[in-house]
Every structure is written in structure tokens, then in C-alpha cells.
Amino acid sequence: MSPLFDHVGIGGGQEASAVTTTDHRAGKFEAKFFDKILEEEIGGVKGHFGPINALAFNPDGKSFSSGGEDGLYVRLHHLDSDYFNIKL
User: Fold this and answer.
1) Is residue 30 part of a domain?
2) Core-most of 1, 11, 18, 42, by most CB within 10 Å?
3) Is 1 contained in some domain?
């Protein structure tokens, strides 16, 4: 959950066992963000090649990290100015 806005970040994707047998674009390996009051999707960030198992906002609300099954990587994502100007 964002420390600045009423936003929730989620991860996920398809089952890890199906990753090698399907098109990588079909796996939905992206972090998605929703307004927790309106329940509307407000955006998404691609970058993983496998299911996302962990996602957390930085306490300052300007970035988030995600970790998944695509290796030993934790990805740090900096949110751009568009995110801070979202009008619903």
C-alpha cells in the first residue's frame, strides 16, 4: 500500500511451471496499481520474466521494489511524475 495515496500495488503472474511452455507476453509478469477506494486500475510496470512474489513501496512513496521467480533479482522502480499527477 502506498504511504502517500490510496493506492495498492500487486504482483503475480502465471504458475511458474507454465512459464517455459507459454509465450512470455501471456504471463502477465507486471506490477499493477489500483486505487483502493474506487477499485480502478491506475497503471502497471513491466520488467519481470517470471511471477512476482513480493512488492513493497519505499516509505517515502517515490519508488517500490519487486522480487520474483526470474532469478536472484530485486528490482527497484522509481515512479515518474505522471504517477504523482494521476486524477481519478
Assistant:
1) yes
2) 11
3) no
pTM over 0.85: no
The tens digit of pLDDT for each residue in 15-55 reads 666 666 666 555 578 899 999 999 999 999 988 888 889 99
| In contact, 28 and 46? CB cutoff 8 Å | no
Host domain of residue 75: 7-84
C-alpha cell at 28: 502477465
| Alpha carbons 69 and 71: distance in angstroms, whole number | 6
Query: Which residue bears the cell 511458474?
Result: 16
CB 6 within 8 A of CB 40: no
**Inside any domain, residue 2:** no
